Amino acid sequence: MGKFKERRRARRAKVTIEIPGLGEAQDVSSDGMCLLVENPFAVGKLVDLEFRPLPESALIKCKGEIIWQRLMADGRIQVGLKFVWPNGPKK
User: Where are the domains of the chain?
Assistant: First the structure.
């Protein structure tokens, strides 16, 4: 696969966050996250998310839209996900 053009608008924080039922987040920002998953998702699919950026953080519940994916050398799939906030992020 070819190189991806960098289009991030928000700074990303490197993390390891287990997202139950989906996979493991590798980085997260205010706009979205990069997940490492076992099975592919259709680009454009909406998924329900529940996660804590830090163990002591409040639980975040939102939807995410799959915007890209690529196969990794180990067979897992890296997925780019954009957060979808129907009424904006809750503060």
Answer: 17-84
* Among 19, 26, 27, CA closest to 62: 19
What per-residue string of b and e applies to 21-53 under the rule 16 or more CB within 10 Å gives b?
A: ebbebbbbeeebbbbbbeeebeeeeebebebee
Q: Is the pLDDT confidence value at 87 over 70?
A: no
Q: Which two tokens stand for residue 58?
A: 């409040």
Q: Which residue has the tokens 């939807």?
A: 63
CB 17 within 8 A of CB 26: no
- Of 2.120.10.30, 3.40.1000.10, 2.40.10.220, 3.30.428.10, the CATH number of 17-84 is 2.40.10.220
Q: How far apart are CA 27 and CA 33, in angstroms?
A: 6
| pLDDT tens digits, one per residue of 51-75 | 887 888 888 888 999 999 999 999 9
